[in-house]
Specification:
about 210 residues, 8-stranded mixed β-sheet, two-stranded antiparallel sheet, 4 helices, about 15% helix
C-alpha cells in the first residue's frame, strides 16, 4: 500500500511510501517518480523498463504522479530507497533531495541513477553522493559510456565491464562474504534487499552490483 502523508515537497511529482515491497523488504521508506517523464539519462534499453508497465502504469498511480507533490513524513525509517521508479530530472529537485537527506541523518538512502550521464545534473549528483548517509550508484547498460570516477556502478547482466557482486535478491542463491564476486560459491538466497544490505551497508563505499533484466 502506498501512503502519502507528512510535509509536502511542492513542485516535484512523485509518491512517498513507507511499506517497501517484496523485493526491497518491509518497513523501508520508498520514493517513486514517473518513469520516462523524470528520466533524462535514459537509453534505448529503458524502453522495456519494468517501471513503465504493470502496477506503475495503473490510472490511480499516474494520477498521483501528476499532482505535483511528494509527501514525506518528518521522520523516516532507517532505510530509504530513492526511486524504485523514475530518476533525478532537475538541479532543483536534486537539491531538494539533498536537503531531505540532511534532515534525516539517521536514515541510510540508496539509489541507482542514469542521470549521471546528463552533464547539467552531474555536479549536484556528486554533492548528493558525498553525503555520509547516501549510497548512489551509476546505473548503466551496454549502450552507455564509462561512468564517473569513484562511483559505484549498477550493471545489467551481460555487460562485460561488470566487476562486483551479482544481485542476490533477483538472481543468486547466496550467503555472501563482503568481498563476494558471485559465481559458484553461493549457498543461500537472501529474502530481500533489506536482508542483503550489500548496496547500502554502513561503511561500505565500494563494490558494484549486477542486476538481471526485469
Amino acid at each position: 500500500m502506498i501512503c502519502n502523508h507528512g510535509a509536502p515537497i511542492n513542485g516535484y511529482s512523485g509518491l512517498y511510501g513507507h511499506n517497501g515491497n517484496k523485493k526491497l523488504g518491509k518497513q523501508i521508506s520508498v520514493i517513486n517518480r514517473e518513469a520516462g517523464a523524470t528520466c533524462p539519462g535514459e537509453s534505448e534499453f529503458c524502453i522495456g523498463c519494468y517501471a513503465k508497465h504493470g502496477f506503475f502504469a495503473m490510472y490511480g498511480i499516474q494520477l498521483q504522479y501528476r499532482q505535483g507533490i511528494i509527501n514525506v513524513p518528518k521522520k523516516l525509517r532507517p532505510l530509504c530507497r530513492i526511486h524504485a521508479s523514475g530518476d533525478f530530472d532537475t538541479v532543483a529537485y536534486i537539491r531538494a533531495v539533498v536537503k531531505w537527506v540532511e534532515e534525516n541523518p539517521d536514515t541510510i538512502f540508496w539509489a541507482y541513477t542514469r542521470s549521471w550521464n546528463v552533464a547539467r545534473l552531474l555536479p549536484d549528483l556528486e554533492i548528493l553522493r558525498a553525503r555520509p548517509n547516501v549510497q548512489l550508484f551509476a546505473s548503466v547498460d551496454t549502450t552507455m559510456p564509462e561512468t564517473p570516477l569513484g562511483w559505484r556502478v549498477a550493471f545489467i547482466q551481460g555487460d562485460n565491464r561488470y566487476r562486483g557482486m551479482q544481485c542476490l535478491v533477483q538472481q543468486h542463491t547466496a550467503e555472501c562474504p563482503d568481498n563476494c564476486l558471485g559465481g559458484s560459491k553461493h549457498i543461500a538466497k537472501k529474502l530481500d534487499c533489506k536482508a542483503c544490505g550489500y548496496c547500502f551497508r554502513q561503511g561500505q563505499t565500494t563494490g558494484n552490483v549486477e542486476f538481471v533484466k526485469h
